Amino acid sequence: MKRSQTKVRRMILQSKQMGKRENKVINIEGRVQFDLLLVILREYKLRSYTLNAVSYHFLGEQKEDVHHSIITDLQNGNEQTRKRLAVYCLKDALLPLKLLDKLMSLINYMEMARVTGVPLSYLLARGQQIKVVSQLLRQASKKDLVMPAVRPEQGDDFSGALVIEPIRGYYGVPIATLDFASLYPSIMMAHNLCYTTLLTAHEAKEMDPEAYTKTPSGSYFVKQNVRKGLLPDILEQLLSARKRAKADLKKETDPFRKKVLDGRQLALKISANSVYGFTGAQVGKLPCLEISQSVTAFGRVMIEKTKNLVESTYTVANGYNKDSMVIYGDTDSVMVNFGVNTVEEAMKLGKEAADKISEKFEKPIKLEFEKVYYPYLLINKKRYAGLFWTRPEKFDKMDCKGIETVRRDNCPLVANLVSACLHKILVERNPEAAVNHAKSVISDLLCNRVDISNLIITKELTKSDHEYAAKQAHVELANRMAKRDAGSAPKLGDRVPFVIIAAAKGTPAYMKSEDPLYVLENRIPIDTQYYLDNQISKPLLRIFEPIFREKTESVLLRGDHTRTKTVLTSKVGALFKYTNKRETCIKCKTSLPDKYEFATCSYCAKDEQSIFENEILKLNHFEEKFAKLWTQCQRCQGSLLEEL
Ligand code: TTP
Ligand code: MN
Ligand code: MN
């Protein structure tokens, strides 16, 4: 198109969920651009978002990586070097296409665009609000209404959802979870909450009390038969799209496609929930606190009522074996201890209770039996773990909420350790084994036996330097790296990988962050105590506390395993390491008697010292080779940091 000029523009995306990141956008007339990086950033929590890492994660393929510093040489070289460059470019274009296909991104985004009525590009560049505005406009125009423009004002915070005080502990019995289906949307639908149905107290007084509802937060809305709201209509459409997605999900058998379809129904669920969010967003396009306050007020009343109904129905007095107890609940869910011993019984009672209680609420509000946790480790509000059962034969998975098994700013050591301990506690049901495992990992850490790739912490660089109030490890490192090599230093929006290195006592942690590659190349020692104190100990204490109570700290963090000296000095001779299952003398190869404790035969024993030195030399040689290879691997294949 001759008259339109293509330009590169800087665009800053900023949202609560995504933080701040800078993009370059180009206009290409007649084309719809769909940036897969943005899709993946939005939908998946990964430790690294390089094309290489993402491709490896989803496709099991890697790119033909070429370091930026050699591109010019490759271009100016010969046919072969240019071929390498070309393959690199081709593969760079092919991988996103393969990802697009596998993740069904285009299909899912197209559906969202149709349901919400926004252009495809908005789904990547804009937030949730614009989708609600678009649906409101579409619905309003059908009814010949216009949407008012309001000036945003900051108001008081309002009360949110109710979290039931947890009865903390380790439950070795099945716990049933009941949860309302699409709670906030169904409240808005059941009570016809909308801008167009809101009444003033004065208007309500003039009307027939049968014609309106007074909400628990004291607002008035007319009933559906008087005038149906726009928001309930919008929600109906979103929820029916979600229902279709859930039906497709149910039919699918391929595990990967199941995940993708689950993502699709989740995206629709979030769009439905953001209608409520939109009415409560005080600096948004059309806040209406009467609506959002009423929604949460209804929610609080309902969860309280659900708890009471469960606990008053399932009692010994009513002919059940045990008095039931709601041990925890959040927003629209209750976790119930029915006092039964099998998953099957818990499911039966759970389903029965959900149906009974659903009858006590207006349509389309529906309480559902969701799953059974068995066993269940309830650490605190929003922090728990358990085996997740949806059928009585076998558990589906281990489910962890608010626990350091997934958070990316912890190092993999923490995630792996916590997962392994939870596995031992929940699956093997052996808390002692979990403690022993934790102890051995702690002593490995303190003795430097943990691989550096397990100690890498990553944090996103979201603001420019001067916007950070306090000094932070990853920001300081990014600055230092930029001074060393501006080309490879992390940029705004990148996740910065770092390790904490040993330094003089009292050096603040933000000064001790270092690039893992630099650490490997220069053999810089790691501050293992930092990892114990600041990374591992809190998450570990948290999961063991419900089991060992006040003894936890002494069991876990104080003991021989934390004293490096006792761990390091072996009671046996220096060659003990080599005696494991040795059948022949390390030097002369004569066979050794059974259960013989030394590596040499009695004849060669006199040379023990020199043999040992030799072995150490060999070991050092291999260690050096290994370190070099490792560094080289990581240099060219960034993602190996995670995958090795
Ligand atoms: P959920 O029980 O997670 O969601 P849901 O009830 O809408 O859907 P489901 O059928 O899967 O149970 O959360 C309960 C309420 O909390 C939800 O109705 C609205 C609110 N909420 C938000 O406002 N934003 C969110 O992102 C989520 C997850 C929930
Ligand atoms: Mn729910
Ligand atoms: Mn819920």
UniProtKB/TrEMBL annotation:
The keyword Chaperone does not apply. It is found in: Nucleus. Its EC number is 2.7.7.7. The keyword Ligase does not apply. Residues 585-642 form the C4-type zinc-finger of DNA polymerase delta domain. It catalyses: DNA(n) + a 2'-deoxyribonucleoside 5'-triphosphate = DNA(n+1) + diphosphate. Residues 118-547 form the DNA-directed DNA polymerase family B multifunctional domain. PROSITE patterns: DNA_POLYMERASE_B. It comes from the Eukaryota. CDD domains: POLBc_delta. It is an enzyme of class 2 (transferase). Its main location: nucleus. Its cofactor is [4Fe-4S] cluster. GO terms for biological process: base-excision repair, gap-filling; DNA replication proofreading; nucleotide-excision repair, DNA gap filling. Keywords: 4Fe-4S, DNA replication, DNA-binding, DNA-directed DNA polymerase, Exonuclease, Hydrolase, Iron, Iron-sulfur, Metal-binding, Nuclease, Nucleotidyltransferase, Nucleus, Transferase, Zinc, Zinc-finger. GO terms for molecular function: 3'-5'-DNA exonuclease activity; 4 iron, 4 sulfur cluster binding; DNA binding; DNA-directed DNA polymerase activity; nucleotide binding; zinc ion binding. One of its GO terms (cellular component) is delta DNA polymerase complex. Residues 6-54 form the DNA-directed DNA polymerase family B exonuclease domain. Belongs to the DNA polymerase type-B family. NCBIfam families: pol2. This is DNA polymerase. It comes from Euroglyphus maynei.
